[in-house]
C-alpha cells in the first residue's frame, strides 16, 4: 500500500465498522510528533482502545493501558527496577538462565538435529524475565510438564488470541477471563510471599517486584491488583520481543559471513579465543558492564536487527474535536482526531530518505560511520517519548550476554523457509553485498 500510494508521509486505512479508521504514520518526524510530550498531551498522545483487547493478558490496570497521572505514578514506581545500573547487577541471573539454553544447543549440535529456535529462545527469555521481575524460577526451559503454572497459564491464555478456534470464538472472552483470573491468583501469591519476606530476610531480593514494594507498608487489595497487572505486563512484553530479536540476529549472522566474522573478532578481542561458556561467564562476572561497553560492533548488530525487524508496535488515539495535528514534510498541517494512529516502524525504519538505497539491507556498520547522520526519531523499535518501553535496557543487556555466549560456539544454518541457496558443489552462493543468497526471503509479521 505504501509504495502503491507513492510513499506518503501518512495514509488512511478505513477499518469501519470493525474499528476506527487507522492513520498509518510513515514519516519519522510525524511519528515523533505523536509520541512526544506536548501542550495537548503531557505524556504523549493516549494509547488506542485496541490495546484493551489484551487487557486479560496484561490486566486492566496495566501500565500500558494507564493514562496521565496514573501512568506517571506507575512508571515512577517501576523505573528503579529497570534502570541500567540495577540491571547490570542482575547479570549473574541472566547468565544462569543462559547456561541451560546453551546446554540445549549443545545437545542439538552434537546430534545434528533440526530444531525450532523460536521455542528455545522464548523459553530462555521467559526464564530471564521471571527471574528479573519476580525473583522466581519459572522453569520454562525444562519442558512443559516441569514448567511453572505461571508459564503454562500464560501460554494457554496466549493461545486464545490465535486464529483457528472455529465455532468456539464466542466463548473466547469468557475463557480468557477465567485463565487470566487463575494466572493472577498465582502471581498474587508470589507477591504476598515476597512482601512478607522483605522485612525478615537478611538478603532481600533485588527484583523489579521487590524494588517496587520498597515504599509499600501495607499490601492492600488495590496495591495487590495493581502490582499483579504490572507483572503480567512485564511477562507478556518481556519474553516474546527479546526472543524475536535473538532469532533474527542468529539468522542474519548465519547468512552474512562478513558480519559474523567481525562479531567473532570483536568477541575474541574482549574475551580471548576461548569461547567456552564457563570462560565467558567468568569474564562477564568479573568485569561486568565494562565488557558490555566494549561490544560496540555487536551492539550495532542488535540495533540493525531492531531496525529491520521491530518486534512490537503500538497505536495511539485522539478523540474527535481534541485538536491533535501533525506537520508533514511538505509543511501541511493534518488533523488526526478520531483516528487510530499507528507509527509504522517497519516503514519508518526502512525509509530510503534516511537510510539510503540500501535501507532494506542488513548493514550494522551504518551505526558506526561517523559521517552518517541518522535522526534519532528514525529508529524507534521501543517507540519514543515519555512512554517508551520501560524494558528496553533489559532487552539490550540480555541480547549482548546471550550473543557473547552463543555466537562463536555454534555454526548456525537455517532450514526450510529462508535457507541458504547453494551451488552444484554444495557451497553457499554469496551475493555482491556479502550476504548468502536464500531460497526465499523471510519477513516479520
From TrEMBL:
Keywords linked to the UniProt accession: Heme, Iron, Metal-binding
UniProt: heme binding residues: 389
Cross-referenced InterPro entries: Cyt_P450 (IPR001128), Cyt_P450_E_grp-I (IPR002401), Cyt_P450_sf (IPR036396), Cytochrome_P450_monoxygenase (IPR050121)
GO biological process, alphabetically ordered: mycotoxin biosynthetic process
One Pfam family linked to the record: p450
Annotated GO MF terms: heme binding; iron ion binding; monooxygenase activity; oxidoreductase activity, acting on paired donors, with incorporation or reduction of molecular oxygen
Protein's UniProt name: Cytochrome P450
Organism of derivation: Penicillium solitum
Amino acid at each position: 500500500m505504501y509504495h502503491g500510494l507513492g510513499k506518503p508521509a501518512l495514509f488512511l486505512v478505513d477499518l469501519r465498522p470493525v474499528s476506527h479508521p487507522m492513520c498509518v504514520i510513515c514519516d519519522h518526524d510525524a511519528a515523533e510528533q505523536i509520541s512526544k510530550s506536548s501542550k495537548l498531551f503531557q505524556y504523549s498522545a493516549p494509547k488506542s482502545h485496541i490495546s484493551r483487547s489484551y487487557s486479560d493478558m496484561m490486566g486492566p490496570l496495566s501500565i500500558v493501558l494507564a493514562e496521565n497521572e496514573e501512568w506517571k505514578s506507575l512508571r515512577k514506581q517501576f523505573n528503579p527496577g529497570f534502570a541500567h545500573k540495577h540491571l547490570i547487577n542482575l547479570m549473574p541471573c541472566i547468565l544462569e538462565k543462559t547456561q541451560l539454553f546453551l546446554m540445549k544447543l549443545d545437545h542439538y549440535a552434537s546430534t545434528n538435529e533440526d530444531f525450532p529456535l523460536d521455542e528455545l529462545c522464548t523459553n530462555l527469555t521467559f526464564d530471564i524475565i521471571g527471574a528479573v521481575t519476580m525473583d522466581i524460577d519459572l522453569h520454562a526451559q525444562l519442558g512443559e510438564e516441569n514448567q511453572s503454572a505461571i508459564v503454562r497459564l500464560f501460554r494457554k491464555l496466549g493461545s486464545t488470541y490465535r486464529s483457528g478456534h472455529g465455532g468456539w470464538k464466542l466463548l473466547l472472552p469468557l475463557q480468557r477471563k477465567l485463565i487470566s483470573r487463575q494466572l493472577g491468583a498465582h502471581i498474587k501469591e508470589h507477591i504476598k510471599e515476597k512482601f512478607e519476606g522483605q522485612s525478615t530476610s537478611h538478603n532481600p531480593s533485588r527484583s523489579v517486584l521487590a524494588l517496587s514494594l520498597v515504599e509499600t507498608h501495607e499490601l492492600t487489595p488495590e496495591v495487590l491488583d495493581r502490582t499483579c497487572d504490572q507483572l503480567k505486563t512485564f511477562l507478556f512484553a518481556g519474553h516474546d520481543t527479546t526472543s524475536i530479536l535473538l532469532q533474527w540476529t542468529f539468522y542474519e549472522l548465519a547468512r552474512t559471513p562478513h558480519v559474523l566474522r567481525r562479531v567473532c573478532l570483536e568477541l575474541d578481542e574482549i574475551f580471548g579465543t576461548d569461547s567456552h561458556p564457563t570462560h565467558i561467564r567468568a569474564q562477564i562476572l568479573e568485569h561486568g558492564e565494562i565488557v558490555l561497553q566494549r561490544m560496540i560492533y555487536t551492539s550495532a548488530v542488535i540495533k540493525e536487527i531492531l531496525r529491520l525487524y521491530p518486534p512490537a508496535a503500538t497505536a495511539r488515539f485522539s478523540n474527535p474535536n481534541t485538536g491533535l495535528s501533525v506537520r508533514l514534510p511538505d509543511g501541511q498541517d493534518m488533523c488526526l482526531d478520531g483516528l487510530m494512529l499507528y507509527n509504522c516502524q517497519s516503514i519508518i525504519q526502512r525509509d530510503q530518505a534516511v537510510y539510503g538505497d540500501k535501507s532494506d539491507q542488513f548493514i550494522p556498520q551504518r551505526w558506526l560511520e561517523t559521517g552518517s547522520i541518522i535522526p534519532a526519531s528514525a529508529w524507534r523499535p521501543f517507540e519514543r517519548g515519555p512512554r517508551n518501553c520501560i524494558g528496553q535496557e533489559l532487552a539490550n543487556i540480555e541480547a549482548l550476554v546471550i550473543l557473547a555466549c552463543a555466537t562463536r560456539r555454534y555454526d548456525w544454518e537455517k532450514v526450510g523457509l529462508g535457507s541458504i541457496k547453494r551451488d552444484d558443489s554444495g557451497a553457499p552462493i554469496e551475493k555482491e553485498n556479502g550476504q548468502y543468497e536464500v531460497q526465499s526471503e523471510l519477513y516479520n509479521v
